[in-house]
Hints:
Keywords: Membrane, Transmembrane, Transmembrane helix. By secondary structure, this protein is an alpha+beta fold. The protein has 3 helices and 12 strands.
Amino acid sequence: MIDQPLTVKFLGLIIPILSILIGIKDTNAMVLTPVVNTSIQDGGRSGIISYGNANGQGDFFSSPGFLRNTTSIENRAIIEFDISSFQNASILNAMLDFDLRVNNSGGSQVRQFDVYVYAGNGGVELSDFSATNLALTPRISLSLPQSQQSYNFNITNILQNFTDNEVDFIGFVVDPIGTNNFPTILENSKLTVTAIAVVPEPLTILGVVTAIGFGTFFKQKLSN
């Protein structure tokens, strides 16, 4: 009986393994905390957010998560998350979670908040105040008296769209509605993402296996 070359034996073993590996994916769940966490104040409710602008006087960054809306002043909370690690991944689930801690001194009216999502850049900018093109639903309605309430939003499809378009940071604006919305604090914000990262392409794996096989073959030939 003629003994099979070592390369043939090697490939005969590795090909079934390769067929199993094809299609295997790495599933990861990650909890992200904000890389940007601030509040932006519109000092005169002018809608113009700018340092040194006559119409933008009183506009500045304030305490993280600070929310307020009165007849003369408005504060919106701004948070951004780094999502660059999910490029080329398939997003299975993505949940935005945060708490609202309420100051009840403003009376017993219902507090309402809109949450907007935007493509961020990982930096703090006054222009983020107006990043209100894409709203999450439903609108938050918080009945008083209340001390602290937790909220979450499913943003799976939005995050997939962002990563497909190579956006590295996802941002959120929390906007207090009405003019009698006294101080509320947004805190404990996090983004929980479950994603599938595909293992190297089958051709890449096959190339590695082939290289190993030929290396073994030539080594055997040289030893002879």
